[in-house]
Amino acid sequence: MAAQKFAYLSRGPIWCRRSTTQRRKEITVTATKLPPIPGTTPFDGEQAKKGYALNKMCFSFNSAECRAEFLCDEEAYMKKYSLNEDQAAGIRARDVLGLIRAGGNAYYLAKFAGILGLNMQDIGALQTGMTVEQFKAKLAAYA
Amino acid sequence: MARIVGMLTTSHVPAIGGAIAKSLQQDAYWKPFFDGFLPVRKWLDEVKPDVAVVLYNDHGLNFFLDKMPTFAVGAAREYHNADEGWGIPTLAPTRGEIDLSWHLINHLVERDFDITTCQEMLVDHAFTIPLKLFWPQSPCPIPAVPVCINTVQFPLPSAKRCYALGEVVGDAIRNWDTDKKVVVIGTGGLSHQLDGERAGFINKDFDLKFMDSMIDDPKWATQFSIHELVEKTGTQGVELVMWLAARAAVKGKVRKVHSNYHIPISNTASGLMALEALE
Fold this sequence. Notes:
The complex is a heterodimer of chains A (143) and B (279). With 143 residues, chain A is an all-alpha fold. Chain A has helices at 2-5, 20-33, 45-50, 52-60, 64-72, 74-80, 85-93, 96-101, 106-115, 120-128, 132-140. Chain A contains eleven helices and no strands. Chain B is 33% helix and 22% strand. Chain B has helices at 14-21, 31-34, 38-47, 98-110, 125-134, 159-174, 204-216, 226-233, 240-250; strands spanning 3-10, 51-56, 71-74, 78-79, 94-95, 116-118, 144-149, 181-187, 254-265, 268-277. In chain B, the strands form two sheets. Chain B has an eight-stranded mixed sheet, sandwiched between helices. Chain B has a two-stranded antiparallel sheet with strand order 4-5. In chain B, strand 9 and strand 10 (268-277) form a beta hairpin. In chain B, helix 4 (98-110) packs across helix 6 (159-174) and helix 6 (159-174) packs parallel to helix 9. Chain B is globular, with a radius of gyration of 17 Å. Chain A binds chain B through residues 9, 33-34, 37-45, 48, 52, 55-56, 58-59, 61-64, 67, 96-97, 100, 105-111, 113-115, 119-121, 123-124, 127-128, 135, 138-140, 142-143, and chain B through 15, 59-61, 64-66, 82-87, 152-155, 193-200, 202, 204, 225, 227, 230-231, 235-236, 262-264, 266-267, 269.
């Protein structure tokens, strides 16, 4: 999984590609260096490719007119940005973790959350299965 | 030649903008955070910098994923804030210092940093809020040059590379033919994570060690890869690379003017440091 995920790191222009054996060795080394971090999805090239339409839609929410247009007809707005089914389902269900799986980036998703009137503690609670009060208590406990 | 008077670093959580707009500085939740800035403002009143160079990261206001520069330098006469989509007030424009912009650009490229130059550049809360915290008057009384580091889309530049960028920024400022005093600002961090099941992650031990290292051992955090920093400080905790770059610009010995660390502001462990350059 990890090896696949970071495979793009070893690619290069055709004229400088090395043999498959050399590449495999390098991937293994890279993969060992990058153990998964539980509950964390680094927004890498894979995510950026997968989530482009979703993030582009959320980026448009910088504009008040676009926010109003989205709220007026969510389905039409998602269609306009060509969201795929996973992304559209995540938007409909306000499912933050689902949207991250579908390629959403935290900063663009925050603009979607803003439309819904949710702040970062609300979003944190949604993602961790806590109430907002529990999530705030978790943060305060680090002090 | 220009002189670097010191370095300021602070968190830039958007909610701070909301708190300023609602005048909540003395509210129990916000007071421990805002009070940290009082001794720093006093120092700024004494040293009176003429220009600020601000190392920050854009969060999807000026840059989208269609074009994502690793390092970008502003070269505008004025920098405008704009609607970021989540309701924090838009702050007044900040004047640029275009001679310094081009001086930095020329120097950085000459020293092998292939930066993007921006003659138009919207600046988001990561640029505007720190300036507002250090200079509460509106607009910001001194001009500034934004230097943006990508922390949105991986691969991010390494801590080591950001430190090296800061060193060159510092050299360029010291080589700027003027008698102006420059303060270097790094914004972001400290530990926090907004996304995923690990949202709400904070690492106080690491943050305190990092803040200590800024004084006498500024390269300490450059030993970590970005992946290790995400693991230790959270997905957005990697914003500490802006602190590293700012510290690298100052070079040499520093005197701690003031520091403050407070948990939590929104989902973030907030940090503040003011270091005076001694060399």
